[in-house]
Structures
1.
Amino acid sequence: MAKCVVHTDQAAPPQAAYSQGWRAGDFIFVSGTGPIDPGTGKLAGSSIEEQTEQVITNMQSVLTAAGANLADVVKVAVHLSNSSLFARFNAVYSRRFSSPYPARTTVGSDLGQLPGMLIEADCVAYVPLRKTKGRSKATARKNPRGAR
């Protein structure tokens, strides 16, 4: 199974030691992304609605770089700073994703690594390699370290 790192300048850059995403065979794994505006490197918005929009846009940008889109997502994991934000988060999420919705886990988490951050999410998409020919718009590179 071929695997390659996925990177795009259209999504928030990693804030620590991780890649934006990986393509491994027919699966695309998008790392946890926060509501960081890729143009400014700063937190995008103060409301859960604004931050959810930015998180999904960041995930979508990484998916696009790998030749996928939100319709290809099969699993999402969401971390909210407070469970009382769930209904407002879910309103944005259900507008950005289409039915049938991906499998999803939503949990409350300490997101104190960035003051004001209310949400972080990651996802997994399934796209057979033969379907991605010509769909990729950004850089997908083979693993430069030769990891297996």
2.
Amino acid sequence: MKNEAYLVKKSGYNFYFQEGDNQIACFGSFFTGKEEVYIDDDLVSTKRSFGFKSVHQFELQGTQYRVIYDLINPITGKVECSLLKGRMNIATQTQSLFSENPKGAARIVLLCFIAGFAFGGLGYAFSQFLFSWK
């Protein structure tokens, strides 16, 4: 069983928690918003979330648990995943898409800025052309 959190860039975020004899695995995609929670390889919760925070609730051995995904920084892709037993926080793990390469985040922000500027300029030019016809 895996006890550490790690990031696989193609599949997204992977968090692993150990609760007694059970492993709770939480998977989430930064790009598609799909989140899944497994207990010992059995799917207990799934949803798509495009917000900054999402909550998955499930029951294990008669006790209510929650997994909370919290997007801390959308530019760097930093996500915090917390496991709660009742109201008590058992564990919290954090991962980031660009923790190993912060230049990658800057490159994506720069490319988005350039693309926005280009499409904005094209949109402005097209609207000037369209509305100048008489």
